[in-house]
Amino acid sequence: MTPSTIEIVPTPDDQRIARLAAAAIVLTVAEAAIPLPLPGVKPGLANIVTLIVLARWGWRDAVWVALLRVFAGSLLLGQLFAPGFFLSLAGSLASLATLGLAMHLPRRWFGPVSLSVFAAFAHIGGQLVLARLWLVPHDGVFYLVPVFALAATVFGLVNGLVAAKLMQGRVSG
Amino acid sequence: MKARLAEWIVLLRPGDWLVLAGALALCVLSALALWRGGAPDKAVVRAGGKVFAEVGLARAQVVEVPGPLGVTRIEVEPGRARVASDPGPRQYCVRQGWLTRSGAVAICAPNQVSLSLAGGAADYDSLNY
Question: Nearest C-alpha of chain A: how many angstroms from B100?
Fold first, then answer.
């Protein structure tokens, strides 16, 4: 075999991000097997990983992990470039932007649960805006807002608690 | 069980409770704002095919409508209306009871009287192009 002229040497940073993204992807794939009554309502377990990455390594790494998760996760599920993928991407971008702002809240008062709930609401917000503009150009989509909001509250709380539990006893930051 | 729960609750910081309360409030408010589409605001009473009266559903009152068989009494209460009595033989419209949703109709065909609720985001009966 001809040796490649271009050699990409992954830095320890790359390897760490890849490991964390892999964990997030596993959760995405596992979650796809859970039957749920409504399209669009999902626990979003992969966000636990995003929250931990955000707390321990900062926003830049969280963006990397979350977006790699969206792309690779949908590739594995055969959803790449399907409508669900774009909804997922819009939701992730909105929630990453929100996390970027919310992470500056005082840590003493606002823990992972707050961040998780904010991110969950931003996620449904981003999805709904894209759905309204592109997939269902009718105000009827907003009829489901209360259901999505309740799901975001519940799953935001659960994911936030799990993330907090996993980080318990470690120095965050 | 209680100890288990306490283990999780310590993970919540004061601001987290605030955020959760806000999130729940948002759920309730959005449900109240978006799911009241069927709430009617007036009752339309027709006799012999013509509008006999349009009554707001804000306060209770009774409307008496004369028809070929006699008088049909329509009772209105805040948010709902019904045909209280009708001289027709089969009493279908009376048995329908209280109408509460926009677009609901009670028809007393023999006496040529109908009661329908309107307003709110009424659903369409039919659409054509």
Answer: 20
Instruction: Express as a percent the part of chain A with pLDDT over 70.
Output: 97
Q: Could you read off the pLDDT of A14-65 as tens digits, one per residue? A: 999 999 999 999 999 999 888 887 877 889 999 999 999 999 999 999 999 9
* Residue-wise DSSP of A64-101: HHHHHHHHHHHHHTT-TTSHHHHHHHHHHHHHHHHHHH
Chain A nearest-CA distance from B120, in A, is: 15
Contacts of A107 (CB under 8 A, 6+ apart): A172, A173
Which residues lie below 8 Å from residue B35, measured CB to CB, with a gap of 6+? A143, A146
Quote the CA–CA distance of B122 and B34 in Å, as a whole number. Answer: 14
Inter-chain residue contact B13 with A113, CB threshold 8 Å = yes
Instruction: Name which of B99, B90, B93, B95 is nearest B114 in CA terms.
Output: B93
Sorted by where each starts, the structural domains of chain A and their CATH numbers stand as 12-167 (1.10.1760.20)
pTM above 0.90, yes or no: no
Reported ipTM: the value is: 0.87
